Every structure is written in structure tokens, then in C-alpha cells.
């Protein structure tokens, strides 16, 4: 089996319910701290957030990280110190290079429905980048029984992605019951040190289940660390739950 797989069950994540915010933390964040889960390569934060109607995060500051939101359902208003104001919906990925410093707010503008999204933080190779903002929409059809690449360090050669400033790739899929999809590990197989890491996260929706290489089972909200993967390895994902499985893959050094 390519690489070593360690499953992180959903219930082992950090958790808090603030009334207006229901949140799970894959890595140490806010009041949740676990020295075993502080980061994974350049990946520092995966928060799965559900924000109630007409509620949100007030204006706050970020610096050095690249921060992006993957919208699962609902409507999220983003407003920042660079003058950007946008309402994000399902399929949208909003990406901010915080660099030398930005401020922003995130607010659920819907009157009756919650917004459900992933917020991810990644450490770029250069923490002192100029602040920047990008949004891109990825259709349902692009994800259906396929892996769509969302973020890439080589936007010049992968123009349909959002560019990031480190060796980090993000993919997403909507996998029908019984369907399979294969991910080929990134990197140059001819390099001397071609070992890579992957993290897989299954969206927190009841009934979603994903089997990795026929052996490791992830249910909704679960994640998996894959280490010692080699560039060019093929990893097979199969949807084995009672509904279409939505999951994301992070492929990094």
C-alpha cells in the first residue's frame, strides 16, 4: 500500500459550540491544544465551521499565513482591509495571502440558513508576501466522480487553479456510491528525496464514507494522515457510504 495511513477520527478533533458557531479543529487552535496535532508540513489549520444565520466573525487580523475557505453550503460574506467585499456560496473557494498583514470579517448573511465551510491555513515559503485576494468557483460537475485540483504552487502551468506560495496541492471530489477515483501523488519521481505527505478530510455530513486503497475507512468528519508516500504513487478512493461522499485531499512535502 503506498505510504503509511493513520486515521484521525472525527470525534478526536477539537470541538466547541459557541451557540452561533459550531466548530471542529483538526489541529491545535484557539482553546484546543494537543501537542500531537499542531501542524502537518505546511498545513497548520483545518477548521470545519457551521455559523448560524446573521452571525459571524468580527473584524480580526492575520499575517504570514495563506488562508482559504471552501464553501460547503450557505452564504458567507467576506470583507477585508484590501477593499474586497463578496458573498461566497457553494463551490466557491476564497483565498487570502495574508503576508505582511490584513484584516477581514466573515459573516453569514442568510436570514434562516447556516453556512458550512472549511477554513484552512498554510505556511508559505516566504511569510512576508504582499497581501492578495483570489476567489474561484469550482462546479459540481468538475468534482463528480473526479478529482478537481483547486490549489497549486504552479499556477502558470495549471491555470485553472488558485496559486499558492509553497509546494502544496488541494483537490476536491464528489464521489457517488460505489464509485472510485485515483490520485497520483505529486512531485518529481526522479528527485532524490521524493517522499510526500497527504491529508484527506471527509466533509461532516452523515452517511459519507470513503475507503482508502481498500483498507482504511473514513466516515463523515474523519481525516487521514498519509506519510512516506512516493511521488507517482497511486492512491485509490472509493465511496462506500449511503450517499455521495465529498472529500478534499492535501498533497504536500
UniProtKB/TrEMBL annotation:
Domain Pirin N-terminal residue range list: 11-122
Span of domain Quercetin 2,3-dioxygenase C-terminal cupin: 150-252
One Pfam entry name: Pirin
Superkingdom of origin organism: Eukaryota
PANTHER family: QUERCETIN 2,3-DIOXYGENASE
Family named by the database record: Belongs to the pirin family.
Protein name: 6366_t:CDS:1
Amino acid at each position: 500500500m503506498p505510504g503509511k495511513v493513520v486515521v484521525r477520527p472525527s470525534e478526536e478533533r477539537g470541538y466547541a459550540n459557541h451557540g452561533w458557531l459550531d466548530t471542529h479543529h483538526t489541529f491545535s487552535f484557539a482553546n484546543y491544544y494537543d501537542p500531537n496535532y499542531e501542524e502537518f508540513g505546511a498545513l497548520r489549520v483545518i477548521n470545519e465551521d457551521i455559523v448560524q444565520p446573521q452571525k459571524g466573525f468580527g473584524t480580526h487580523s492575520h499575517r504570514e499565513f495563506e488562508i482559504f475557505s471552501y464553501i460547503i453550503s450557505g452564504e458567507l460574506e467576506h470583507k477585508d482591509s484590501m477593499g474586497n467585499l463578496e458573498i461566497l456560496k457553494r463551490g466557491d473557494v476564497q483565498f487570502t495571502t495574508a503576508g505582511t498583514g490584513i484584516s477581514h470579517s466573515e459573516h453569514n448573511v442568510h436570514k434562516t440558513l447556516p453556512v458550512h465551510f472549511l477554513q484552512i491555513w498554510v505556511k508559505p515559503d516566504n511569510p512576508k508576501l504582499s497581501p492578495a485576494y483570489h476567489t474561484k468557483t469550482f462546479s459540481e460537475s468538475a468534482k463528480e466522480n473526479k478529482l478537481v485540483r483547486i490549489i497549486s504552487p504552479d499556477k502558470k502551468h495549471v491555470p485553472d487553479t488558485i496559486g499558492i506560495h509553497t509546494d502544496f496541492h488541494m483537490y476536491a471530489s464528489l464521489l457517488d456510491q460505489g464509485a472510485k477515483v485515483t490520485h497520483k501523488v505529486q512531485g518529481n519521481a526522479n528527485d532524490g528525496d521524493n517522499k510526500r505527505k497527504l491529508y484527506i478530510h471527509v466533509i461532516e455530513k452523515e452517511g459519507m464514507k470513503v475507503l482508502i486503497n481498500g483498507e482504511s475507512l473514513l466516515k463523515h468528519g474523519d481525516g487521514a494522515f498519509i506519510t512516506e508516500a512516493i511521488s507517482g504513487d497511486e492512491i485509490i478512493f472509493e465511496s462506500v457510504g449511503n450517499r455521495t461522499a465529498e472529500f478534499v485531499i492535501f498533497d504536500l512535502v
